[in-house]
Amino acid sequence: MATKIRMRMQLFIKQGLFTLAALLISSAPGYAEAPIQVPMDASHWHGLEADSMGSKGNPEFTREEGFPQGLMTLKEGSAGRDGLTFKDGTIEYDFKAIGDGAPGIQFRINGSGASENGEEFYFRTGQDCRASDDCVQYTPVIHGFMLWDVYPQYQHQAMLLDGWNHVRLVVSGRRMQVYVNGLPQPALSVGNLESDSKIGYIHLRGPAQYANLVATPGLVDGLPPQPTPDVTADDRAIVRRWELSELCPISSLAAPAYAEMPKAASAWQTIHAERGGLVNLNRQYTMGDQPAAVSWLRYTVNAK
User: Fold this and answer.
1) Listed range (108-117, 203-212, 265-274, 284-293) with the worst mean pLDDT
2) Which of 8, 25, 108, 231 is 20 to 30 A from 220 via CA?
């Protein structure tokens, strides 16, 4: 009996050491895990509720020759992948646009509705996409807001084909590079992923057909996780520290009067500008059906 107990203890210890070693390896910089192929079927994907960018998702699944993992058609809305979270690594997929729209992928998604946070990359699939400088775009999703118009620096040209297109996203910490249709140079380089979400789910948005989605955790092609330097970091002409008031209800959409600005010191809090001097109030508030309100920003200038 004692011999059997010792053997079991040794086996348990060896298994524990093996598990610990595997965890240390998988967390090492640049270590790539096995690719995860994601079938396009109803057991892996579900339609998502309507959001600020579209109606409720209603994915359709089919099997066709040449697509062993199946096809998913999203005529509108979005679909979420069940049970798979993504942090850093590579995501590859094929898509075929269905008319004009903004099909794409969301990743590191947490929450839903007014509490949703994560990252999004998409195409503008109109007929001018290949010639325009905003064919592709990255945008953060912050508290349910998709802030494409706040970050125009994250859009670019891309070689979008009329049929199937292959997309490869390389995500490492705060940085991302996106490759389209096998070209060696990225169609888009993002020097700072703006959402605060570090890990989360994968969503796909229509209108488009999707196939051959593969996620490879840890495969970052040597892309550093640190953001690129902020070129405005030493610009002393940018105001970095502001005061933000509490929300003040308004009865109309007319411009608020200066006299309506809150007077009490308790109504104000300090807020700091981000990269480029941007003050992003979407981090302070959530999307919802609250009554119309206004916030004030102020900065005190001491002239000598």
Assistant:
1) 284-293
2) 231
